Amino acid sequence: MTSSFCGPLQINLKLILVSGKTKEFLFSPNDSATDIAKHVYDNWPMDWEEEQVSSPTILRLIYQGRFLHGNVTLGALKLPHGKTTVMHLVARETLPEPNSQGQRNREKTGESNCCVIL
What we know:
Layout: E1 11-16, E2 22-27, H1 33-42, E3 59-63, E4 66-67, E5 84-91, H2 100-109
Parallel strand pairs: 1-5
Antiparallel strand pairs: 1-2, 3-4, 3-5
Subcellular location: Cell membrane
Domain Ubiquitin-like: 9-89
InterPro entries: MUB, Ubiquitin-like_dom, Ubiquitin-like_domsf, UBL3-like, UBL3-like_ubiquitin_dom, UBL3_Ubl_met
């Protein structure tokens, strides 16, 4: 998991909770979203006490507006080493299905992919 030295291969993640509270953690490029959730759960910051969750399995990372699936590593995201990357951390039981949001929005607005014939 995370190593104790702060070298150039470390990735600094600044995690933001829904409440707006933040905390920075160091991870290896080989760490996955699941590894990160477990590490944060096991090292839950004292000032996040009100947001404490019951299990690391419900912690989800959001990066650039997308939920990260458990096996995605920081290295696969090509995050810069030695710089701070911001991600959101939320408690959520399940991940949304890929593209389900776009489909739902089209159903609500009545939008479709067909053409208008005049």
